[in-house]
Amino acid sequence: MLAESELAGIAATLAAPGWAFWAAAIAGVAVLGLAKGGFAGLGVLGVPIMALGMSPVLAAAILLPILLVQDVFSVKAFGAQRNNRVLALMLPGSCLGILAGWALARFVPVAAVEAAVGLIALGFGIQRIRAERRGAPARPGQPWQGVAMGAAAGFTSQIAHAGGPPFQMHVLPMKLPRDAFIGTSSVFFAVINWLKVPAYAALGAFTAANMLYVAALLPAALLSTWAGTVLVRRVDGPRFYAIMHALMILVGGKLLWDGCSGL
Predict the structure, then answer these.
(1) Number of domains in the chain
(2) Residue 222 to residue 225: CA distance in whole angstroms
(3) Stretch among 47-56, 139-148, 221-230 having the lowest mean pLDDT
(4) Which helix (DSSP H) or strand (DSSP E) does residue 195 occupy?
(5) pLDDT tens digits for 38-75?
(6) pTM (two decimals)
(7) Within 13 Å of residue 205, how many CA atoms lie on the same side as its CB?
(8) How far is 207 from 193, CA to CA, in rounded Å?
(9) How does pLDDT run across 21-34, given as a tens digit for each residue?
(10) Containing domain of residue 107, as a range?
(11) What is the CA radius of gyration of the chain?
């Protein structure tokens, strides 16, 4: 049992930030939950939403442990349908990308990465919608493309928490079955998130106060993840991919705006 003084300290820590902090935090983890539940692409909006009520650094520190828990539920729900060939090509590249991102973080402006990824994602989303209207067939992609896009996803995830667009640019044209796409995405980003833990630990992100915020936000995070898995199963394959392409445009526009604003 916790002593009365310890309980008072916990209550004071949780009450200190104020309503703006908690509103932004709950909204951010809810959006992440929907992304982890199957609506891939939304996840890149988590940190910007939370940054409305706190610093981006604090938002990222709070979100990583939450993401690790959400990943467990996402992988359990869809991981069995993953495409192992895609993962075998992209995961080794992602490890190299994360290492490069960690080594170059102090030299590469986050805003420049956001703007570049946003512009490419915006163009890709528009191109995919046009291709689908023309009835473009599925395109498996070349092995080198899988390694390269895995590296890009790892790099942009480490630098700017924007690993989703490179992954989707490689996998969306394959037109995998809905659950295979979600399962592959969930496993891929679960591995990436665990690979980022040592760097966050070295930066002192896992403080006692941050872990209290994580514990307080977990119910909203898990509820939204469950809601995402329920909602996405009500969307058939063609509509699912239409939503993914629309999200690519939304996310691309958001990243481009953030990047240009920070340059």
Answers:
(1) 1
(2) 5
(3) 47-56
(4) helix 178-195
(5) 988 777 788 788 888 887 778 888 888 999 999 999 99
(6) 0.86
(7) 21
(8) 18
(9) 889 889 999 999 99
(10) 4-262
(11) 18
